[in-house]
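Design a sequence for this backbone.
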């Protein structure tokens, strides 16, 4: 509980400082983390790539599902949060880097095709960059899945949310929108994308 309160303070400071590039005003709830990581295999030795893990709400849920099996790479741009993540999750490969360089980051580390890509990035991170959804599609195994959350109250009207949903559908043959996760502040939905479209 104490860590969560401290993390909430961290998120609030970052959101005030840079609201366009901070995905949330508070750490994601356990309920949202569970929905976001439901695609992570619970058996075998999965490869999981996490984008923008922040202070680790989704990281912890991934760790609970994999129980130390497989490989978990977390890419975080914020230096303080990257250091915090490595301290909290020493078994996770924390990379301080920019997701716009996703292809190079994964290639440099010889990361195999991912069973799951889990994103805590804000929608604004997808705007005006190298097509990130295309890079995510390339990172996935054929049966892999990509998850991204959005706040339920913005997904129908906010231009970035509408644009990114359309972009998801351009790059993936299957895009599902889950039920609203009410036990989160604010309530959120999870987008799950599968089956990269050829040539994207």
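Sequence:
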């Amino acid at each position: 509980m104490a860590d969560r309160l401290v993390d909430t303070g961290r998120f609030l400071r970052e959101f005030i400082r840079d609201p366009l590039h901070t995905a949330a005003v508070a750490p994601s709830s356990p309920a949202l983390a569970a929905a976001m990581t439901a695609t992570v295999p619970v058996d075998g030795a999965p490869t999981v790539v996490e984008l923008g893990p922040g202070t680790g709400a989704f990281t912890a849920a991934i760790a609970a599902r994999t129980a130390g099996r497989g490989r978990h790479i977390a890419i975080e741009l914020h230096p303080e949060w990257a250091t915090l993540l490595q301290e909290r999750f020493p078994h996770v490969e924390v990379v301080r880097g920019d997701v716009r360089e996703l292809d190079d980051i994964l290639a440099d580390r010889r990361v195999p095709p991912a069973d799951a890509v889990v994103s805590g990035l804000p929608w604004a991170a997808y705007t005006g960059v190298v097509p990130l959804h295309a890079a995510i599609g390339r990172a996935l195994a054929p049966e892999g899945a990509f998850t991204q959350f959005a706040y339920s109250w913005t997904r129908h009207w906010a231009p970035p949310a509408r644009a990114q949903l359309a972009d998801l559908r351009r790059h993936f043959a299957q895009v599902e929108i889950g039920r609203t996760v009410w036990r989160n502040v604010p309530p959120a939905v999870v987008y799950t994308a599968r089956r990269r479209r050829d040539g994207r």
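Strands lie at 47-51, 71-76, 93-96, 114-119, 140-151, 172-177, 188-196.
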